[in-house]
Amino acid sequence: MKIKEILQESIKQLKANEVEEPHAKARRLLAFTLEVPKEYLIINYDKEISKKQETIYKQYIKNLLEGEPIQYILGKQEFMGIEFAVNKDVLIPQPDTEILVEEVIKLLKQYKKPKILDLCTGSGAIAISISEKVSEAQIYASDISEKALAIARINDRSKKIKFILSDLFNNIEDKFDIIVSNPPYIKTHEIEKLSKEVQNEPILALDGGIDGLEFYRKIIGQASKYIKKNGYLCLEIGEEQKKQVKDIINNEKKYADIKEYKDLNKNDRVIICKKT
Known about the structure:
Layout: H1 3-16, H2 22-34, H3 38-43, H4 51-65, H5 70-74, E1 76-79, E2 82-85, H6 97-108, E3 115-119, H7 125-133, E4 138-143, H8 146-155, E5 162-165, E6 176-181, H9 196-199, H10 214-223, E7 227-236, H11 242-252, E8 255-262, E9 268-275
Parallel strand pairs: 3-4, 3-6, 4-5, 6-7
Antiparallel strand pairs: 1-2, 7-9, 8-9
Helix pairs in contact: 1-2, 1-4, 2-4, 6-7, 10-11
C-alpha cells in the first residue's frame, strides 16, 4: 500500500469517528510507524510501505478510534520544551499547566537554595521542568501511585529529584519553601462527559470528588504544616473553580496574598497564596 493511500484511508476513518485533528494524527502516527520525520511522508507520497508496517499502523489507528490518546501510543508528550515519557498510568501533561510552572519559577528567584514539593506529581512534568530551569532547587515529588512514580523516575534524567510514595501528606516529613500541585479536579459525574481520550487517562488523576474540590480541601487544609513561614502554595485549578478555591483558602485563615493567573485561553488556571 502506498503512503498516500493508507493516509487517505485512515484520515477518512478518523473523520467518520469524529476524532480531533485527523490529518495531523494520521500523519504523526505513520511517521512514528515508519520511524521517519513527518516531512518524509510528503516527499515519498507514492512510496510503498511493507505489509508489517501497514499492520502496525492500522493497529495504531484502531487504538486511536477506540479512544486511546495519541500520546500513549507514541509513548511521549512535550511539556516546557522537554520530552516526557507517558503511558496509561499517568495524566498527559497539558500546555495549560506550563502557566503554573512558569509562575513557580518566578517565585523561586527570591531563594538561594529553595526546597519544593510537587504533590500529585504523575509523570513528574512539573517537578522535572522546575529542576531543569532552577538547577539549585532541592525538589521532592510525591504521588499515591507507584506506577506513576516509576514513569516520573524515568523522566528525571538528572536523578536529582527525591520521589516519595504518599497519599497527599501521609509520608511527607519536611517543610518547604513552595508546595505546588495539579491535583484531580474534575467532578465525578462530569468524567463520563469528557472525550474518550481523556476518559482513557487514569481516573485517579482526574476525579476530584462530587464537587471537584475534594483535593483542594485536603491540600489547603494540611499544607500549612509543611510550608515554611512566608512560603507559597501554588495550585492549578479548573476554569470555573476560582471562587470556590479562594473561599477554601480564606476559610483556613492561614494564608494571605492570594493571586490568580489565567492560561493562554484566558481561563482561570492558577492560584497562588502565601503562608502567614
